[in-house]
Description:
alpha/beta, 20% helix, elongated, disordered N terminus
Amino acid sequence: MDNMKVLLCTCLLVPWLVAALTKKSDQNSQLIPGSLPDTGLHRHFSDHLTSRRVRKMLPLADEPDSGLITEGGNVTDLPTCLLCVCLTGSVYCEEVSPDMTAVPALPKETAYLYARFNKIEKISAKDFADIVTLRRIDLTGNLISEIEDGAFSKLTRLEQLSLAENRLVKLPMLPAQLTSFNANNNLLKTKGVKANAFKKMTKLLNLFLADNKLEAVPFIPDSVRSLHLQNNNITEVNIDTFCKSNNTYYLRPSLTEVRLDGNPVVLSKYPDSFTCMRVLPVGRYR
């Protein structure tokens, strides 16, 4: 009888012990060495699921992306940087699709803007008002026909500006510290370029005004090295165009390239107009 009782207890206890051990083993197998304890694990997955729900509720353009936000960056900078390519201090918005018809909002600290070959039609005074760090702006190949007064007035660090291949009929006031200005291939006439447009630009090295409708050579600062005026409607020059009639000792050693080819002017008719220069202009002599 005693043997029967022992056998019966064994049959009942063994399965219970096996089941208990199996359950504990399954719980432990869910954690790897060094992983979170039960409460930490629960909190981790809860936070992860909450984060996923928040991300799903965000529009695509507003979804956080750690790859696009640099230290000190702002999520409000993202729309432009999703449309364009933003590198450290540089923004590339070239041939943007869908069409870009206005200057985009730029991230703070932008130093270089390349917005070439788009359909920008106008530059307003507020487009660059808050981006005083700009050093170079290239808007080549747009449809710009109007630039509001003061559009570049706050850009005290701007050194290079290209407005080539647009539809400008007049030039705005330009920053005095420019070293390079390009307005080739526009619709500029002499009346659209103020007489003192370049007078205060004492650091200007390159001045490109080719392929316009200019009837006369504008005032050229002494600092200019390369001057492009080819393919305009310039019909004459005089001794004061490049030299100074009241100063026979005046020289222009910096000016090493002058292009007047493609203009009606016959340069050989004005031999005294180039005596202060190191090189003769390229152009028509007969």
